[in-house]
Amino acid sequence: MENSKPLKIFVVEDDEWYNNFLTYNLELNEDNEVHSFKNGKDFIKKLHERPDVVTLDYSLPDMDGDKVMRHIKDFDSNIQVLVVSGQEDIETAVEILKQGAYDYVVKNNDTRERLFAVLNHIRKNVELKEEISELKKEISKKYDFSKAIVGNSTAIKKVFSLIEKACESKITVSVTGETGTGKELVAKAIHYNSKRKKKPFVPVNITAIPKDLIESELFGHEKGAFTGAQQRRIGKFEEATGGTIFLDEIGEMDPNLQAKLLRVLQERELTRIGSNKTIPLDVRIIVATHRNLADEVKKGTFREDLYYRLLGLPIHLPPLRERGNDILLIADFFVKEYCKENEIPIKKLSSKAKNKLLKFPFPGNVRELKAVIELACVMANDEMIEESDISFNSSNNMQDILMKEMTLKEYQARIIETFMEKYENNVLQVAKKLDVGKSTIYRMIQNGEVQQK
Ligand SMILES: Nc1ncnc2c1ncn2[C@@H]1O[C@H](COP(=O)(O)OP(=O)(O)OP(=O)(O)O)[C@@H](O)[C@H]1O
């Protein structure tokens, strides 16, 4: 491996002549960055600059060698200590090595050569360690969320880089996106790639819990706190201690609970209903909504102060129809998943089937694509999934179509396409049915606005 950065060496030696001797010789190699110290205290003050190697005179006037050594190892056990000493006895050497020194060099005529040899070893070790840590980083990137969250589009790559940022800290994350875009998947990816991964990931869907139970569900209650509270109950926040709570559909939270949540977040502690004991909050919060919370704030349905508390690092998931060819990548992924689970030979999508998928706007996003693919796998008679095996149920639903927020012209084109398919590209019949001029349809076909199947 190419040496990427110089080896940072701290020389700690009180004898002026020897200090100069070591520093001079070490500086002969351009790949060394050498700093020299005449006493232990000055050196300890600079330890935070994290040298790779320390050459340590074990008998400093102001500090015991073993004390200096402990300081170094307590600070960072990866710093290699090379003890350079006048004492030649084996016992001292063994003792020093036991304390974690990398090697022991005696001050004599061979010191220079020994020093260089040992440093070469250390340099190789440091380089290998760096290489390993880089590789580990690469591997964890490859095998974690980017394996579960399929996609290669610019839009999703932006999401990946935000997920990486979120994994590095405890910052609150707010995930937005239409239904089925993968908000929960992103929340899980963040949790399982963060330092909290060994602690629980607790998902709570605000809309799935009856209004009068939600407070107790989130914060817990003591026995007898209210009618029906027959037993103490630990809330979801407490359950997530050390881990992550995922509050899905946060935009649906009613105002009373918003106020309570705000208090808990501000004070970083919670109380179970019916108790006066406070419990410190050690939970990472990820919220999700399909709504535009800023708009809800404007409308007065979501508290502004809570909005700012929860915004943290915002991650927006684009709808599937804006992710280009990702539709096909994800479709392939689901085909393989389905076939493996059902232990059947892996099927393939025909190019017409692919085109059909690419043209559909998927109002239900990835969740809908998954359902479409599973059904197609069932319908396909052999290993090829044909266009006719693919059917979109949601295309019958007017509400879903309107949700797509296309322009009037785009709606017009999609309607004409649907009719053209139904009436087997009979322009006259379609024009009659839709009460538009046939030349309009021909023009739209010519301009490529309407695709014939
Ligand atoms: N990029 C992706 N690659 C592979 N699978 C995905 C991807 N995005 C979402 N999924 C899958 O799609 C389904 C829906 O995802 P998820 O439940 O995370 O969406 P959501 O946005 O939280 O939905 P809702 O708003 O309805 O709660 C899940 O089965 C999830 O594993």
Automatic annotation (TrEMBL):
The modification 4-aspartylphosphate is found at D57. Residues 8-122 form the Response regulatory domain. It holds the Pfam family Sigma54_activat. Keywords: ATP-binding, Nucleotide-binding, Phosphoprotein, Transcription, Transcription regulation. Residues 149-378 form the Sigma-54 factor interaction domain. Gene3D superfamilies: 1.10.8.60, 3.40.50.2300, Homeodomain-like, P-loop containing nucleotide triphosphate hydrolases. One of its GO terms (molecular function) is ATP binding. It comes from the Bacteria. SUPFAM superfamilies: CheY-like, Homeodomain-like, P-loop containing nucleoside triphosphate hydrolases. InterPro entries: AAA+_ATPase, AAA_lid_NorR, CheY-like_superfamily, Homeodomain-like_sf, P-loop_NTPase, Sig_transdc_resp-reg_receiver, Sigma_54_int, Sigma_54_int_dom_CS. One of its GO terms (biological process) is regulation of DNA-templated transcription. This is Sigma-54-dependent Fis family transcriptional regulator. It comes from Salibacter halophilus.
